[in-house]
Specification:
Length: 333
C-alpha cells in the first residue's frame, strides 16, 4: 500500500487535517512542533460503488477501503541543516511514496506563524528550498561514494544528470525506480492541500510541481466530524476529497462480497486480477484458478449474482485480466 506523507511548516494544520480524515488520536496545538514523532493514521473511504453493492448484498458487515498517511513533524527554514527537527523529519518523509504538502491559508492570532504572517506562495517556496537542499546533499554524497567505489555507472550518470538540472519545483519522477535506494524527495509525486479559506489565487500555484491542488478548511471539517448534530445538517467534504485524491494518486477500487461481508479494496491502476487476489488472501493468490467478474454499473441491474450469471453477464477471466474501477470479483480456487 502506498504511504502518503504530510509535509508543511509548523502550525500549517497537518495534524488537524489528519485527525479530520481519520478521527485518529493526534495531538493538535497552537504552538510549533506539536507533532514530534511521526504517526501512521488510516483514513477510511466510503465510496458510492461500495454502497451500491451493499444495497444489493445487504450483508451484515460493510468494510471500506482505506488510505495510509504519515503525520510528519513540521519543517522550517534550515531543516536540511538540522534546524528544528531537521533531517530526522526529512527521513520520515523519505519513507513515503507520495507527498501531500499542506500549506496554511487561515488567519488566527492565537496560532503563531513561523514566518509571522500568512503567505502561501512564500511558504511553498520555503519547503521547496529545504527539499532541494536536502536532496542535493544526498546526491552529492552518493556521487562521491559511487565514484570512489567505481561501480553502478548507470546510477552515477543519473545522479549527475539530476544534480545538473536540479532547481525549485523541478521533479524527477522518471528516475524514481532506478534511484529508489536513495529515496530522493524530488523523485516522488507531490500534491498540495491548501488549508483554510482566506482569499487566494490558486491559478499561479498550478504550474509548480503538484499533480493536483485541493482546498479544505480542515478545522471546520474536524469540528464537523466531531459534532454528530452538525453533521446531519452540513455535508462533509472529507469523503469527496479522499475519493478524488485516491484516484489522483493512481488507485482504483474493486469490490468483493461473501454472505457476511461486502468489501472495497484499492489497488494501483493497471493491476491484474492475480494481484487483487493476493491482497484479499495469499491462498487466493497461490491457488488461483480463475475469476468471475462483473462491473458494479452492470450488476446494479440485477437482484443477485445468480441472476446476473444466468443471464450471461458474469465474465470468466484468467490471471492476466486487468481490473477496472468498480469491478466486483470472485476468485475461484
Ligand atoms: N482557523 C483555522 N485554524 C486551524 C486550521 N487548521 C488548523 N488550525 C489551527 O492551527 C493550529 C495548529 O494545527 P496543527 O494541526 O497542530 O498543525 P501542525 O501542522 O500539525 O503543526 P506541527 O505539529 O507543529 O507541525 C491549531 O491550533 C489548529 O486548531 C484551519 O483550517 N482554520
Ligand atoms: Mg502536527
Amino acid at each position: 500500500m502506498k504511504l502518503i506523507g504530510t509535509c508543511g511548516l509548523p502550525n500549517a494544520g497537518k495534524s488537524t487535517f489528519l485527525k479530520a480524515i481519520s478521527r485518529a488520536d493526534l495531538e493538535i496545538g497552537n504552538y510549533p512542533f506539536t507533532t514530534k514523532k511521526p504517526k501512521e493514521v488510516i483514513a477510511f473511504l466510503i465510496s458510492e460503488n461500495l454502497q451500491k453493492l451493499h444495497n444489493i448484498t445487504k450483508t451484515p458487515k460493510l468494510v471500506p477501503s482505506y488510505l495510509e498517511f504519515l503525520d510528519v513533524p513540521g519543517l522550517i527554514k534550515g531543516s536540511h541543516k538540522g534546524l528544528g527537527l531537521g533531517n530526522e523529519f526529512l527521513s520520515y518523509l523519505r519513507s513515503c511514496d507520495i507527498i501531500l504538502e499542506i500549506v496554511r491559508n487561515f488567519e488566527r492570532l492565537d496560532v503563531p506563524h513561523p514566518e509571522n504572517y500568512v503567505d502561501v506562495e512564500r511558504d511553498i517556496l520555503i519547503i521547496e528550498e529545504e527539499i532541494i537542499n536536502a536532496d542535493k546533499r544526498i546526491i552529492e554524497d552518493n556521487i562521491k561514494k559511487l565514484e570512489k567505489a567505481k561501480k553502478d555507472e548507470e546510477k552515477l550518470v543519473l545522479l549527475k544528470e539530476i544534480l545538473d538540472k536540479i532547481e525549485p519545483f523541478k521533479r524527477f519522477e522518471a528516475y524514481n525506480e532506478k534511484l529508489r535506494e536513495f529515496n530522493l524527495l524530488i523523485t516522488k509525486k507531490w500534491y498540495l492541500l491548501i488549508n483554510g479559506n482566506k482569499k487566494l489565487d490558486i491559478q499561479k500555484l498550478k504550474n509548480l510541481c503538484f499533480h493536483n491542488i485541493y482546498q479544505l478548511d480542515c478545522l471546520f471539517e474536524l469540528q464537523l466530524e466531531e459534532d454528530e448534530e452538525l453533521k446531519k445538517e452540513i455535508d462533509s467534504s472529507i469523503n469527496n476529497f479522499l475519493n478524488k485524491f485516491r484516484k489522483d494518486i493512481g488507485l482504483i477500487e474493486y469490490l468483493t462480497f461473501t454472505e457476511e461481508i461486502t468489501q472495497s479494496w484499492l489497488i494501483e491502476e493497471n493491476s491484474n486480477i492475480l494481484e487483487c487476489a493476493k491482497k484479499i488472501h495469499t491462498d487466493f493468490y497461490e491457488k488461483f484458478k480463475g475469476a468471475e467478474v462483473i462491473n458494479i454499473q452492470e450488476f446494479q441491474n440485477f437482484k443477485n449474482w445468480l441472476e446476473a450469471k444466468n443471464k450471461g453477464f458474469i465474465k470468466q477471466v484468467s490471471k492476466d485480466y486487468i481490473v477496472n474501477e468498480g469491478d466486483i470479483i470472485k476468485i475461484i480456487i
